[in-house]
Each structure stands twice: as C-alpha cells, then as structure tokens.
Amino acid sequence: MTKKNFYIGLGTFLSIFVILLIIVTVNNGQLDYALSKLLVTTLKPNARYAETLFGRFFEAFGESPIYLLVQLGFVVFACLLFKRKQKALVILVEVAFLLVGACAGFACLHRIEVYFCRYYAPDSEWSHMFSLLPFVVNFISGASITIVLFLLIKKPIAKINEKHLISYFLMGFTAVLVGLVLVNIIMKPIFNRVRYRGINMNESLVFSPWYVINKVPDILGNNIKDDFTSFPSGHSAAGAVTYLIMFLPFYFDSLKTKKGYIVCTVVPIVLTTTVCISRIVMGAHYLSDVLFGSSIVFVSFWIFYFIERKITNHSPFVSENFGNLTIY
Question: What average pLDDT does the structure give for the chain?
Fold first, then answer.
C-alpha cells in the first residue's frame, strides 16, 4: 500500500461517510426513518420480527465473523507452537489454544441456532446453550472443525513468517475487541435508541435521530429491553470484522499483487454491506446505526494497524518504486 493509495482510500471512505451522515442527520433524521419505512416490507403490524428470509439468514450468520476470527486465530497460534520442541508446557498451551478454538466454534453454532429457533422453533431446546443434546453436538462440531483446521494448515503455515502471523492476528484481535466494546458495551447503553421494529410494537414510541441520548421507559409494555439497543448496530460491527481480510496483503508476500489487493478489498466490503442492508430490512436498525457500527470497527482496524507498524518499527507504506510492494 503506497501512501498515495492510502490517501485515496481515506478520501473515498470519508466522502461516503460524510454523505451518508448528512442524509441520516438532516431534518432530525427523517430521511433515516423514511429509508427504513421504504425497505422494511415484511414486518406485519404489531410484530417484532420481519418475515424476510434474506434478513433472517444474515441475522443468524452475521455475528459469525467474530467467532471465526477467534477460532482461526487460536488454531494458527497452536500451529506455530507445533513447530517448536514438544515439551510438556508447550503441548499444554497448544491444547489450551485448540480448546479456545473449539469453544469459539461452539459459540458460533449456538448463536446461529438461537436466531433460527427464534423464528422457526421458539420452544426448541436448541435455543438453550446448556441443554444436553445441543451442548454435546455443538461442542463436538466446534472441536471437530478446530481439529480439521489445525490439520489442514499446520504444514502450509510453517512456510509463513511467524512474526507476520502473530502481528496480523494480534492487531486484528485488539482492533475487534476495542471496536465491539465501544459499540455494544459503551455506546448502546448510552443512546438507548428505539429500533424501528420496537416502534412497530408500540405506537406510543417515537423515532429519534441517531445523535439523541434516550432513556428506556420504566414500563416496557409490549416492548423488551432489546428494542432500545438500535444505535450503533452490533451485527454491522460484527460483519465489519471481515475488514481484517483487507490487511492480508500488508503482511503476506503471496498476496501483494494487484489481484490480491482487489479481492481482499472487495470481499469484506460486499460482506459487510450485505449484513448492513439485512439489518435495515429486518427493522432492527436504521441506516445511521449500521453506518456507525461498521465504521467504528473499520476505523479501529486502521488505528491499530498503524500502532502495530509503529511498535514493530515497520513503515505502513511502501514506495511506488517497489515492484513487489514488499512492506518489510
């Protein structure tokens, strides 16, 4: 990535962000609300959940990038340890890393099941994490996927620079953690913004623009507390975890090609945008919610990328004269 390309990308991002921010802010956010009214077409009166298969599918799978990152990251760490002399402590840490990967796979499957059960089998035991059958099946499945990943990548990964792998995943983990904490733990409880579907459940509730800090009503009536967690969008932040793919060419030489840069840029943009649209059509979020949710994680990646480059004393940019675009 050259400095010129970075500033072009930064200018493009800021331009799109500012344009969308203006759209969702002017006239007390009425365009924000109007867009939801236009796109939410399968939400019946007084219903909480829309009946769109597209929206439900990406609601179920939209959080998966978080768990997949954790699972893959700890499998990679286990593979790196596998290259070392297999002393008792090393083996113990390897097993611990693989166990974390298995737990991440377990959690991913459970969250998917919870969302599908919400719509198609609300009384099913599969919506409960510690019900015996779902617990056993999900843990065995998560462990099996982890072991398969370990067996598949342990040899190829031995050829990749260990420091680059560690830097890449630690940067990713830190950025994701900070971004998700900011979105889900700090901002949501501050703004308490009512979801579009929350208003659909209770006509006494009114739309508020994204910048207004609200209070959850003392008497919820037909609503639930989750109806007041619209801003920012957690699912969109989770979908934006895929932006870590964008940084692959910055760390690994085999992807430092024109095709590599294009694929690693387009794929996360398409995935994140799809998740964002799905949240709007479900009536779960407004455009402003998904704009901030995805942007916070995106910006977090770039901040911690530059911090990582600074700590490791590597330039985040390369000269245009470098034919192979080698960073290190």
Answer: 93
- 86 vs 263, which has greater pLDDT? 263
Q: Which of left, alpha, beta for 248 (phi over 0: left; psi -120 to 50: alpha)?
A: alpha
Q: Over the stretch 37-75, which tens digit does the pLDDT of each residue have?
A: 999 999 999 899 999 999 999 999 999 999 999 999 999
- pLDDT tens-digit series, residues 180-194: 999 999 999 999 999
Task: Give the range among 147-161, 216-230, 235-249 with minimum mean pLDDT.
Answer: 216-230
**Which residue from 12, 69, 3, 11 is spatially nearest to 306, judged by alpha carbons?**
3
Strand-pair partners of 2: 318
Give phi and psi for 318, each to the nearest 5.
Answer: -130, 160
User: Which residues, including other chains, have CB under 8 Å from residue 47's CB and lie 6 or more apart?
Assistant: 197, 200, 201
**What residue segments make up the domains of the chain, in order of their start?**
1-13+36-51+164-328, 62-159
Residue type, 42: T
- pLDDT, one tens digit per residue, over 295-326 is 999 999 999 999 999 999 988 887 554 444 44
Q: Using CA atoms, how far apart are residues 178 and 184, in angstroms rounded to an integer?
A: 10
Name the DSSP letter for residue 85: -
**d(Cα 25, Cα 149) in Å, to the nearest integer?**
45
Alpha helices (runs of H) in the chain, residue ranges in sequence order = 3-39, 53-61, 64-82, 88-120, 132-153, 162-180, 188-191, 196-201, 234-239, 248-251, 258-281, 287-311
Structure tokens at 257: 């090609």
- For residues 71 and 178, the answer to whether their CB atoms sit within 8 Å is no
Q: Which of 29, 40, 70 is nearest to 231 (CA)?
A: 29
- Taking CA atoms, 46 is separated from 201, 224, 293, 296, in Å, by 4, 13, 27, 32
CB 264 within 8 A of CB 324: no
Euclidean distance between CA atoms 266 and 276, whole angstroms: 15
Say which DSSP state 240 is in: G
